[in-house]
Amino acid sequence: MIRRLLSVVLLLGAAPSAFANDLQISCGSLLECNTAFQGAAKDIAAAFNYKIVAPAEATGVLGFGIAAIASYAPTEHRSDWRTLTGDSVDQLGMVGAVVNKGLPFGFDAGAFYASVPTAGGAGAYGFQLRYAILEGGVAEPALAVEANYTKGTGIDDFDYDAWGGDAILSKGFAFLTPYLGIGYVSASVDPHKDVSQTYGLMKENVKQSRLFIGSRIALGFLELTPEYERFGSNNVYNVRLGLSF
């Protein structure tokens, strides 16, 4: 799994044509457009939902982290994308940055911004608030719950926003901290008025559970965190590389 996750950044950078028109709607058959939009919306939500990519341990009041993140999601509704855009869309992905800051009483706050490579400035940003129920220790695992919000930006044909919540369990072993999480996402993919009128598209709400598993590998201040995420029927591969203080 780690080998595949580490290849995410290379895949995103090496195949720009795969992303060039991913988010531009140009539907030929009006009768099929809305059904295709429903399928594509599920892939969009899988790729755009907030990526924590971190175990449950609290950062601490003085703690601070900054990292690069990348996400790669093979599409599960390729025929819908072909109908909707006229192109073969095999994957969606984002690259960006995330920051997190420890707060008093076991709380952490985080934020991210990421863009879709070569998709004309399309991307997403979001915010997160997390609470450590168990802070973890030598004999005790860490347990945290978090809430997040994500908003699409720079997308010509539709608006995207989502709310989510997760529970995360982790346990540190020397320089490794494996973790497991389960969550729920409520996303909205809303076509712009001109697109809706032209192609007969309606707002699509995606409500989906997700499961994710990963491990933070700590080498001093440097941390590498590969993660696998299952979002409905979508496989998503995430990776985070950064510094924590």
Could you explain how this protein is built, in words?
The chain is an alpha+beta fold and 245 residues long. It has one domain: Beta Barrel (Lipocalin), CATH 2.40.128. The chain has five helices and ten strands. It has helices at 2-6, 8-14, 30-48, 78-85, 193-199, and strands at residues 64-74, 91-102, 107-115, 123-135, 142-153, 158-170, 176-191, 204-219, 222-231, 234-244. Helix 3 packs across helix 4 (78-85). The chain is elongated and about 60 Å long. It starts with a helix and ends with a strand. The model is unreliable at 5-20 (pLDDT under 50).
Instruction: Please give the order of strands in the largest beta sheet.
Output: 1-2-3-4-5-6-7-8-9-10
Number of domains: 1
Helix percentage: 10-25%
Oligomer: single chain
Q: State which percent range the strand residues make up.
A: over 45%
Category by helix and strand content: alpha+beta
Radius of gyration: 18 Å
- Tally of separate helices: 5
Low-confidence segments, given as residue ranges, are 5-20
Give the total of beta strands: 10
Q: State the end-to-end CA separation.
A: 27 Å
Name of the CATH architecture: Beta Barrel
State the order of secondary-structure elements, H for helix, E for strand: HHHEHEEEEEEHEEE
Shape: elongated
CATH fold-level assignment: Lipocalin
| Major sheet summary line | 10 strands, antiparallel, barrel
Keywords: Signal
Organism: Solimonas terrae
Signal peptide: 1-20
Protein name: Transporter
